[in-house]
Amino acid sequence: CPSSPKPPASPSEKCGVLNVTKITEHGKKVRKNWTSSWTVLQGFTLLFAKGQGGGTSWFGGSQSKPEFTVDLRGGSVEWASKDKSSKKHVIELKTRQGTELLIQSENDGVITDWYRALQDTISTHAWE
Ligand code: I3S
User: Fold this and answer.
1) Which residue of 18, 67, 94, 102 sits 20 to 30 Å from the alpha carbon of 116, by its own alpha carbon?
2) Residue 32 Cα, ligand 1 centroid: separation in angstroms?
3) Which residues fall within 8 angstroms of residue 35, CB to CB, at 6 or more apart?
């Protein structure tokens, strides 16, 4: 996180711009709405802020309120199957609360790093 006030406190701290859409909310299917979001992984929480574009903002700045947060504890992450999206490099994230998100980047290095970070975070079970 280049503009973070302090260096990342743990390997599970990560941020960048990703394309995101919800596909299910509280177990119910919702219409896709792909948006480019400034995305931050902090501990067991994934935060999204809309339209941060260049990736130079940080939460706390005037235009950088988290729009949406996801609790990763007890969730799961996998590569989305082709029927979930026609896009390339799509991660499917399911939360214990019944929210499903698709997370995508055109850059496969970027998305692979996110996949690993999310997988690591979820698989530690360190919150237990
Ligand atoms: O799974 P879907 O319904 O094919 O998802 C596409 C739609 O959400 C589409 O918007 P409309 O609801 O206005 O048709 C989006 O523009 C597409 O990006 C969605 O599909 P992909 O394959 O890009 O996730």
Assistant:
1) 67
2) 6
3) 19, 20, 21, 50, 51
Q: Where are the beta strands (DSSP E) in the chain?
A: 14-25, 28-29, 35-42, 45-50, 68-71, 76-79, 90-94, 100-104
Q: Residue 55: what pLDDT?
A: 45
Give residue-wise pLDDT tens across range 47-94: 998 754 444 555 545 455 678 899 999 999 999 999 999 999 999 999
Pocket of ligand 1 (CB under 6 A): 31-32, 34, 85-87
Question: Ligand 1: which residue has its CA nearest to atom 6?
Answer: 32
> At which residue do the structure tokens 């119910």 appear?
28
Q: Report how far ligand 1's centroid is from the alpha carbon of 7 (Å).
A: 37
- Cα–Cα distances (Å) from 84 to 15, 21, 63, in that order, read 24, 11, 31
Instruction: Report the predicted TM-score, pTM, of the whole model to 2 decimal places.
Output: 0.83
Please say whether the beta carbons of 81 and 87 come within 8 A.
no
- Closest C-alpha to ligand 1, atom 8: 32
